[in-house]
Write a structure and sequence with these properties.
Elements (H helix, E strand, L loop, with lengths): L16 H9 L13 H13 L11 E9 L5 E9 L7 E5 L13 H11 L2 E5 L11 H20 L7 E6 L1 H15 L8 E5 L19 H4 L9 H11 L22 E7 L5 H13 L4 E6 L14 H18 L4
Parallel strand pairs: 3-4, 3-5, 5-6, 6-7, 7-8
Antiparallel strand pairs: 1-2, 2-4
Helix pairs in contact: 3-9, 4-5
Length: 337
């Protein structure tokens, strides 16, 4: 479907009937932390809830999983989880970053995506456990992630990966922000081997205070979906930024307005949710990349909230998201269209 006309974007927020019915019986999630000091204590609880969710109950046959650490610039050892073929097959390389608003989250959140990459492409996947706020504010998450990406690129052979068969970078939500930022850093600093494709799952691409004047009229979703039913809201995003403390005008938080532009980035696949306050982060970012000559593909899920793919795997649009994700990985790694 063509989403080039921003005047049609508002209609994407009409709630999906199946999701509306799901909300009637869905269990309530944990309340947002009102005190930043509570966040570290919430992480293990939220991790267990996520691991027990239907989206994580997948066939992991033929996938080997192991924990590693990666050296950071300040001497810290960044934890990461490696997913790779148990057969020892050498395939493409992928690096993923989890979501969680730069406050919570863990590498196995990207497990379903990582397992799909291993099973369908013999990929070796490294999911990075970057440091988070409130203990570590902006730009520590970016620094850890960039350090990890550079290290993985150099040491891919030690995992049995072959980046010449493809080198994918991706992430969801806050992890999508990190992936978008690192894709620009990789271009500007000439990462070797080079990235061959980017996968962005409902990413953060710009701070609301940094949206440039010529894009403000099209940046609607932060207000339109401010209180839409879902796991995030305008208020929760504001709270998250207050804790993470980003410079919204910095390239390292707002890749939409990257100071050296977007030309020369790898092909990029994006997913956007119609009922998401971050919807237009993805729609505007895709348009800016496309206008800069970057090959892009965009999939939008009308009437669905941020993170819906992890809520209930039986929803029809969740099934479509899984199918689209498989197409995205094939598009990036196998030349699929």
């Amino acid at each position: 479907m063509d989403y080039s006309d921003p005047t049609t974007w508002a209609s994407l927020a009409e709630i999906d009937p199946e999701y509306k019915k799901f909300l009637e019986t869905a269990p309530a999630g944990p309340p947002p932390a009102s005190d930043p000091a509570q966040i570290p204590h919430m992480r293990p609880i939220m991790k267990q809830m996520s691991l027990n969710s239907p989206a994580q109950q997948i066939d992991r046959t033929s996938v080997k999983q192991e924990d590693i650490t990666i050296p950071a610039r300040d001497g810290y050892n960044i934890p990461a989880v490696v997913f790779k073929p148990s057969s020892g097959a050498s395939g493409p390389l992928a690096v993923l970053f989890h979501g969680g608003g730069f406050l919570v989250g863990f590498p196995e959140m990207e497990g379903p995506a990582a397992v799909a990459l291993v099973q369908n492409h013999n990929a070796t996947v490294v999911s990075v456990d970057y440091r988070m706020a409130p203990e570590h504010v902006f730009p520590k998450a970016i620094e850890d992630s960039w350090d990890a990406l550079k290290w993985v690129a150099v040491n891919a052979h030690t995992f049995g990966a072959d980046p010449s068969k493809g080198f994918l970078l991706g992430g969801s939500s806050a992890g999508g922000n990190i992936a978008a930022v690192c894709s620009h850093l990789a271009r500007d600093e000439k990462l070797s081997p080079p990235l061959t494709g980017i996968w962005l799952n409902y990413p953060v691409t710009v701070g609301p205070d940094a949206v440039p004047g010529h894009l403000q009229k099209d940046y609607q979703s932060n207000e339109q979906n401010a209180t839409a039913p879902g796991i995030i809201s305008k208020a929760s995003l504001e709270m998250g930024r207050a804790i993470y403390k980003p410079d919204q005008t910095s390239d390292l938080f707002s890749p939409l307005i990257w100071s050296t532009g977007h030309r020369g980035l790898p092909k990029t696949w994006l997913h956007a949710c119609g009922l998401d306050p971050l919807r237009d982060d993805a729609l505007l970012y895709e348009r800016e990349l496309r206008q800069a000559g970057v090959e892009t593909h965009l999939e939008v899920y009308p009437g669905m909230p941020h993170g819906f793919d992890a809520m209930n795997s039986d929803l029809k649009q969740a099934a479509k998201h899984r199918e689209d994700r498989a197409k995205a990985f094939a598009w990036i790694l196998s030349g699929g269209k």
